[in-house]
Amino acid sequence: QVQLVESGGGLVDTGGSLRLSCAASSSILHTTSMAWYRRPPGKEREMVAKTLIGGRRNYYSDSVQGRFTISKDNANNILYLQMNSLKPEDTAVYYCTGLFYGREYWGQGTQVTVSS
């Protein structure tokens, strides 16, 4: 069983920045991929950013490309999401997910609210 715990959410003004963290209870070197998703109010969950094994390639949704950066701290088993130039439409619950030993795990989510 792998646990993922997100942190770093909060309330920020338009144009501000936040860095989300996702601490894993297992080595993230054992993952095939890790990603950040978000669920805006009243909308479906959507993929925000994804990193593949070895972190050699990252993927971003069009809506966050150029503003968000996904990264990993392999030594401390932490996945990050640096969010810059935040917009009100970025308001959502953000979740991290990882594929460990062929099984998908999700965190409980952290709320990000961007005020206009």
Structure write-up:
The protein has 116 residues and is mainly β. 0% of the residues lie in helices and 56% in strands. It has no helices and eleven strands. The chain has strands at residues 4-7, 10-13, 18-24, 31-39, 46-52, 58-60, 68-73, 78-83, 92-100, 103-106, 110-115. Strands 2, 4, 5, 6, 9, 10 and 11 form a seven-stranded mixed β-sheet that branches. A hairpin with a 5-residue loop joins strand 5 and strand 6 (58-60). The radius of gyration is 13 Å and the shape is globular.
Low-pLDDT residue intervals, each spanning 5 or more residues: none
Number of strands: 11
Rough outline: globular
What is the ordering of alpha helices and beta strands? EEEEEEEEEEE
Task: Give the C-alpha Rg.
Answer: 13 Å
Mean pLDDT reading: 94
| Overall SS class | mainly beta
Main beta-sheet strand count, sense and barrel state: 7 strands, mixed
Treating each run of at least 4 consecutive H or I residues as one helix, how many helices?
0
Percent of residues in β-strands? over 45%
Helix content: under 10%
Gap from first CA to last CA: 40 Å
